[in-house]
Predict the 3D structure of the following.
Amino acid sequence: MTDFASDPSRLITGMGAALVDLFADVQDAELEALGSPKASMSLIEANQSTDLQKSVSVHTHQPGGSAANSVAGIASLGLATGFIGKVSDDALGHVFSDAFQQLKVAFPSRPETSLPTGHCLVLVTPDAERTMHTVLGASVTTSTADLDDAVLAQTGLFFAEGYIWDSPSARQAFIAAAERVHAQGGKVGFSLADGFCVERHHADFMALLDSHIDVLLANETEIAALFGSQNPSELAPHFAKHNLLGAVTYGADGAVVFDTKEAVQIAAQKVEDIVDLTGAGDQFAAGFLAGLHRGHSPEVAGKMGIIAASHVIRQFGPRPQSDVGAQLKAHGLTL
């Protein structure tokens, strides 16, 4: 397979919603009573979140956001990282920023003053599935003014989540950042975020494939919303047509990685002690992008993604709390 030509000495910089996750355990009956479709992601207002929190018992606050989780995973592997996003100067904003400071992630954000920090109430059922209710808040105010010249100048791989397309100012910032990274020889990745997001922005996402994207990340639902199929043999021509590297995850069936020549199945690890599925896709992206950035083939990078995803679902929360690098080494893989 084709190697990914990225300068491994430069940053991997993510862009996306800067959110804080609030976790609560619920039974399926409670979820149904709340009127929340299981495993969905719903956008709500701050007052709705406040009301929902009164109906459950929030036990944990953790920094989150899809691309941000991936950046945290990449940073935990020892790679230099950056993040583009927006928080408010409030308690949850400090939770988010302090976590990146501890991981040495470059996050030169100008705090938003008119909106609260975005947050996501994550309701976790006994089967470890999560149902999310997201208040976007300050996260949707990212704009070109938030692009840091020093961070972009050091970026060799830039990636973003599809949710940014729900914010016109963030779209502009993404395009500006992608163009700059490409102009200095870097690569650009894009995660489709969720199937509903793909449906909302299908035409724009298709246009991006031929103009700004080198690497595409998705799960089976998202890729079906984009290309009309989740069958790997039917997807391969699409990746080839648009000259993309990429990976599609299939849950317990592992993942399939694509380049312009072929598709390769990567088996899932058998995990008996699943605690929480939150962040599995984000950490797959972390392992996959880190592997590509370090010059590994998509197949090897896919194996790294599987290991990172398998690691995070054994714990509570979307970011690794122990050494994923040691897990890679145990499987004969190094960055």
Notes: The two ends are 18 Å apart (CA to CA).
